[in-house]
Amino acid sequence: MTETPRVQERSLHERITADIEGRIMSGAWPPGHRIPFEHELTVEYECSRMTVNKALSELVKKGLIERRRRSGSFVTQPHAQSAVLEIHDIQREVQALGLIYGYRLDRRELRKSTAEDRKTLDVKAGAPVLALTCRHFTGDAPFCLEDRVINVAAVPSAREADFSEVGPGHWLLQMVPWSAAEHRIRAVSADRRVAEALAIPSGTACLVIERRTWNGPNYITHVTVTYPGDRHELMAQFLPS
Q: CATH number of the domain at 3-75, out of 1.10.10.10, 1.10.1740.10, 1.20.58.410, 3.90.1570.30?
């Protein structure tokens, strides 16, 4: 007679965990959403507070919610990972987290190369380049800021692409072959422009991934992607030399 209640309680704990996880992964409960208080869940599921606490603890272990003293439990901002040795597609990165992806082009300028462009893309003075600034979103929340310059001589079709619907990184991966890439990674404090773009306080620690890609002797693009530092991490795997 003592076994049946334990089996029922374990089954109910799993159902509560699955229900809340489903609401989070579907986007019904977005990052920052407050989970119902424990006493509210005990009423909803007609169970003990211990059962609810066990379910919430499991969700904390999975990284889906966080508990704040005296405030309750909240859906966490997903923590994205990027492989250091790969060129990743930000759209797929967001979708892999089970979140709704959004994109916005903030600036598109076809112009002559600057001294900085000539340094990063090894182009001649006055060579045409396409400068783009865009943002990627999870729902309505900014996910990262992208500043990109494309070498138009290496990618002539970029001249006609408006990038209003499709991000330049995604477009380049689909349209342009590349033979090599270079990553630089650093930490910065958000200046006013970055803070406004990412909806974070000025001075917030950010992770910056700077990358150049080229095909044969020609540089294709130089891009700087800025993430709020607490929402992203880099991962690499190595084999013994």
A: 1.10.10.10
